[in-house]
Amino acid sequence: MGETFSSCLCVNNETNVDIEGVTLRVEVQTTNSKVLVAELGGRDFKLAVGDSLECIAEHEVKELGPHVMACIVSYHLPSSYRHAVGAGEVSNEANFRKFYKFAVCVASSGLERFDLKMLR
Predict the structure, then answer these.
(1) For residue range 42-70, what is the model confidence (pLDDT) as tens digits?
(2) Is residue 20 packed enough to be buried (19+ CB in 10 Å), middle (13-18) or exposed (0-12)?
């Protein structure tokens, strides 16, 4: 414990239109806590075609056991790309989440070790 978990995160605009209002929110959750690690972009942030939003998220590890890094991306589609939300509703807002699970344990050498695997 006391080590820093670091992760390089990248949100790419692989569409053929500019995307507005792009937000990346990164949280690390354990059995005892939930910590906001990074929040980038925002209401006025625009991601042009082919551009990316990148950051290095760091979190000081304070406990052993399972951890989950949650990455939440929100954005606004252009009006020509509206999609049906349900029950006749239409929205320009879209979002997705990715979860990465890692365990912090003490190795036989006495040093902390991170095991990372992606949750689907």
Answers:
(1) 989 999 999 999 999 888 888 888 999 99
(2) middle
**Count of domains observed in the chain:** 1
Longest Cα–Cα distance in the chain? 59
Cβ proximity of 93 and 76 under 8 Å: yes
- CA dihedral (107, 111, 112, 116) in degrees, to 10, reads -60
CATH number, domain of 63, equals 2.60.40
Type of residue at 44: D
Domain that holds residue 113: 4-119
Q: Is the pTM of this model over 0.85?
A: no
